[in-house]
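> call design_seq(struct)
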């Protein structure tokens, strides 16, 4: 089992930000993903959302997906194979 860390956020801070604790986790996950500090897998876990839900949220916020060069090359090769009869 993965160890868990806990962070205390004063309720007045959440109230000032007009966020619940769950909403704060989503905001943190999106921000860390956008900065490239979390993978999409870890970010959606932190947010407590499915991968599909997290991808939708990123799209709504106009945050592009992060692709490694190898991922792009693999995707292009797959497209080439699919387009060949």
């Amino acid at each position: 089992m993965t160890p868990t860390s806990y962070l205390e956020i004063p309720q007045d801070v959440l109230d000032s930000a007009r966020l619940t604790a769950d909403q704060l986790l989503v905001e943190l996950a999106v921000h860390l993903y956008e900065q490239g500090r979390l993978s999409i897998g870890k970010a959606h876990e932190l947010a407590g959302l499915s991968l599909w839900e997290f991808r939708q949220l990123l799209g709504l916020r106009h945050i592009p997906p992060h692709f490694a060069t190898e991922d792009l090359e693999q995707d292009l090769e797959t497209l080439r194979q699919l387009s060949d009869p």
